[in-house]
Amino acid sequence: MKTGIISDIHLDTNEAYPVLDTLCDILHKENCTGLIIAGDITDTAYTTFKWLDKIRQKIEMPLLFVPGNHDLWDPDKKFKNTWQIYEEYKQQEGCLCGKAVNLGNQKIITGSIGWYDYSLGADHYTTEEFNKKNHAGRVWQDSRFVHWEEDDRIVCKDMLQEMERIFEANKEKDIVAVTHMISAVECSVIPPVNNWDYFNAFLGSKTYGESYEKYGVSCAIMGHVHYRKQFTKRNVEYQCACLGYHTEWTTKNVEKEIKESLQFLE
């Protein structure tokens, strides 16, 4: 079994490019039997809900996913709060949040959006400064469009605890964990240019990687940072397979960009 892994496809921002069609063609050429998307499918909850069925129909293979922070964005405040959006995602076919999916051969996969607890931000900033999500004239847009109605650190802890319950129940199995937020400091912006020593705080949490090591997670899939990176740390294989915005690509060749982004779970 070969499953494709990608994140941050941003189908609306990248609408001028045939991202989904090209991704589908590549998956079939690679003889993939499934696809994992680690969040940020579009830039609002409304559009992502609409696109999920289109993606399933187009790829013609099982889709597993977790929502990203953009997939939670509610600029028109159509939902009571972000928890309501998150719960709706959990009811979607293929959503990994709060579930363990059997991959065969004693391997399971589970996931969560992850969220952040400021632990990746520089120590010289205070919690109060991070809470503002505003620094040097730049605003972290979650502050405008995400409405947990709780402290980010509590949300982050809740998400981790949800995953750890699944880890504990499957500790004799080979576990693959998917989050949108990063789970290792190696995927933060290093060196922290353009004030990223501040904005790294909103990329994820060290606690996820620590939990993976504790429970023997074999593979950690993530997105969010628009990086493409693979590395192994303390027996955990980390995969960050972000496509990102077309404005960040090194070329305008969508096939090349997707091939360079796409990673695989064998």
Can you walk through the features of this model?
The longest helix is centred in the middle third of the chain and has 18 residues, at 152-169. The mean pLDDT is 96. By secondary structure, the protein is an alpha/beta fold. The protein is built from nine helices and twelve strands. The strands form three sheets. It has a six-stranded mixed sheet, with helices on one face. Strands 3-2-1-12 form a four-stranded mixed sheet. The protein has a two-stranded antiparallel sheet with strand order 6-7. It is globular and about 50 Å long.
Give the radius of gyration. 17 Å
- N-to-C series of helices and strands: EHEHEHEEHEEHHEHHEEEHE
* Assembly context of the chains: single chain
Helix content: 25-40%
Return residue spans where pLDDT drops below 50 for at least 5 consecutive residues.
none
Distance between the termini: 6 Å
How is the topology of this model organized?
Blueprint: E1 3-6, H1 19-29, E2 34-37, H2 45-59, E3 63-65, H3 82-90, E4 100-104, E5 107-112, H4 127-132, E6 134-135, E7 138-139, H5 142-145, H6 152-169, E8 174-179, H7 196-199, H8 206-215, E9 219-222, E10 228-233, E11 236-241, H9 254-261, E12 263-265
Parallel strand pairs: 1-2, 2-3, 5-8, 8-9, 9-11
Antiparallel strand pairs: 1-12, 4-5, 6-7, 10-11
Features of this protein?
globular, 266 residues, 9 helices, alpha/beta
In a few lines, what is going on in this structure?
With 266 residues, the protein is an alpha/beta fold. It contains nine helices and twelve strands.
